[in-house]
């Protein structure tokens, strides 16, 4: 079979691990991904597709589908020619806006509640540690969400999953606000995480549906901007609401429900089904059945644990270590900010302590706009040095200074100036901002490396990284305040810095040995 377009190949690459395509082993090539380390130009993805397409024509290869699936299952993986011009530029921008707003909800709901931790714990007659554990549960469920959202949206379509998740996110937010006991608070907070995080994977699929490969980076940047504004704006809004009255913490969740409802109306009116043909439609077309709802477990390739399996590849495991170091340090700093700065600077109003969240949040937002460009610049530089040959690990050279020096040192200065009560407010604020910039100079390179290093896994590779990232965030949310209360903010920051240096060591291993690891274990 011949491939009709680059968009089709991208669509094929996003299928779950359970359905793997191979080319017959002619001329020593068994998979298009083996073309990855061939000599390529700067537009490397398009060159890879051209090389692999020429191999297919030369060998007149046909697809072989592993497993004992029916002919209907085989038809699910036939590529479809995608017309990326079927939507106008303005329509595409509107769809990106809708996706970015949805991606804003989950981090907003994670961080906005932090200024209210002491107030919520008092009303439920518990401790701040217990409420922070609810944030940890939230992060665990966030890790699970992409495991289910991506395969379901691939089978039933982006629009239906997008709308259902917005409905349940908004309803869960209202029910958290109406919570009468701690158990109700925990359960519906977890459901907020489950439905709110689905937009990361579904939004990325929408971008892949409507943009050509060479245009996707800019669109994905806007979605990332939506996810970065939440951590900086959420605590400030939460602090302002708490300042208005102790019982007003519930308004935080009503506000999130309102934002979800607005996003739901926008999506219901303006968001079409962006996939050219869903897998369910393909089953109906090939089988002749007129059923409008089919069982994904029977007709689809539904493997929610494929993202976890992707972490068994050594290169992705090391990338996971990097993600753990970054996320753990981030949430250890963000979770207990008010417990740390309020007594240190004698702050009595929640809004004052909440303003400290603007420092790292502004750093996250600022770093988003050039972090990806920095890694692209390193890739182009090393392509020239290698006379046109591109190695995915070269992208990670861009994070050596931010991850190995800037972030851990900023973390140490932040922690020990608060511990020793030196430098006033200015020093910790400055280094929280610098640490935020360093972090978002690292994440874009890390995400792109996951895709570049294992192109046959595509979204699954990034999903695995997000999975372990959210698990680390959950652990950090649960232990941050306990550590600070027992050993102090200085030593807690020191532990986080050593974790960052461990992540840095993983980057160095990947830069030096990553290519050999991929060749050995691909």
Describe it.
- This protein has 21 helices and two strands.
- It has helices at residues 6-13, 44-59, 71-76, 89-111, 117-123, 128-156, 158-177, 182-196, 198-210, 216-244, 249-270, 279-287, 296-299, 306-309, 314-334, 337-345, 350-354, 358-385, 400-419, 426-453, 459-521, and strands at 21-22, 64-65.
- The longest helix has 63 residues, at 459-521.
- The relative contact order is 0.13.
- The chain crosses the membrane at residues 94-117, 129-148, 160-180, 186-207, 219-242, 248-271, 307-334, 354-375, 396-414, 426-446, 466-484, 490-511.
- InterPro entries: MFS (IPR011701), MFS_dom (IPR020846), MFS_trans_sf (IPR036259).
- Keywords: Membrane, Transmembrane, Transmembrane helix.
Short description:
This protein is mostly helical and 522 residues long.
